[in-house]
Amino acid sequence: MQEEHHDADALPPSENSPRETDAALRKRSAEIRTRLTRLGRSDKGFVNPSVVRGSTVTFQSLDEFEEALACDLKDGPFTYGLLDTPTTRALAQAIAELDGADGAVLLESGLAAVGVAMLSQVKQGDHILMVDSCYGPSRILCEGMLKRMGVETEYYDPRVGQDGRPGIETLFRENTRLVFMESPGSVTFEMQDVPAIAAACRERDIITAIDNTWATPLGFRPIEHGVDMVVHALTKYVGGHSDVMLGAVTTRTRKLWDRVKITAMDLGHGVSPDDAWLGLRGLRTLAVRLDAQEHAAVQLARWLQTRSEVKRVLHPALPEDPGHAIFKRDFDRATGLFGVVLHPVDRASLARMLEGMAIFEMGYSWGGFESLLIPQHPLSERSVTPWTEDGTLLRVSVGLESVEHLTQDLADGLDRLTR
Ligand SMILES: Cc1ncc(COP(=O)(O)O)c(C=O)c1O
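^ inputs. structure came back:
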């Protein structure tokens, strides 16, 4: 996989992502692997930080008590459990460091992170450019609450600026405030030219944000490519065990961090230290889990391509994928989520396939240890780039089971389509 990832030469390297040699990539991945075992270990003695549950923090003097109101929210003394605890701070600092960010704000879910990132930047009368392949609830937020606030959202082609398409700057208006990306999209897996979009936005002082849940900081570090804010649903790969809901927004600058933190505070967001602790525990094994999940996903994707029931596999790590050149240029690795388009099947056959699976289960999440397989309906979730693929789209989230067993399960499932 790694060889495929760094061989060909379809796109010129972008300014901020000089082409890496395999050796440089291996060195970085080795460094991250070790760093994951060191980050957020704030306690002396025991290797893990303790779970500090609490609302109240008491002060020893009137000066201290009064100064707390003006203290540095990011690195200063703790003042109140909703804002920060030693456990939540340890995870926030770890995520920020992995992203090369100035700081991170933790939220109770990935969707809360999307919402707080957006709300921190927009006001009535502003215009947002949102990628058409975005996570469905991000679109619902734009069409619901943000519209009610008087913020207009316009959707754009995920491949804006690629293959002769006009660049993102052709969509800018006087009041464009924020451009939101997701690369690859978690339903249809189009890759975006993030460095080009970020550069165009910077010229016009437009803020950029990206949902980087698919890649995790181990696969892609958007801040290094010019992006201002990065959203993570830590619920997925970082948590990794399908037992915690958690999100984060990391920011390029302290000023952006302040805005995100104040928005989270205004809305009363706060993360449970137990959940933050689970996030930290997930980080310890993130690299080894991703190694297994990436490898298994590529093997399954390749195998699916050989099946007559399969029309197309959507996975940017495959050289034939339309997003592969960008993936190869900007990403260090893939993860375990991809799509597969079947030749059209009726609902009864699909139900026979999905309901009879021995290992794959149907569930709305991904990134956990358990493999999931669900139908997707992108047609209903897009507005400017209609999904024209004639077929049945399934999304595969590869867990930690044996690839042999997963392949057999899929083979039996595909056989059931025609039985
Ligand atoms: C791409 C993407 N972003 C954000 C989220 C939201 O994460 P959470 O479920 O933690 O709210 C999801 C959840 O499925 C997702 O797929």
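DSSP finds 14 helices and eleven strands in the chain. Residues 109-111, 114, 135, 186, 211, 213, 233, 235, 245, 247, 365 surround pyridoxal-5'-phosphate (CB under 6 Å).
thumbs up if we can close this ticket
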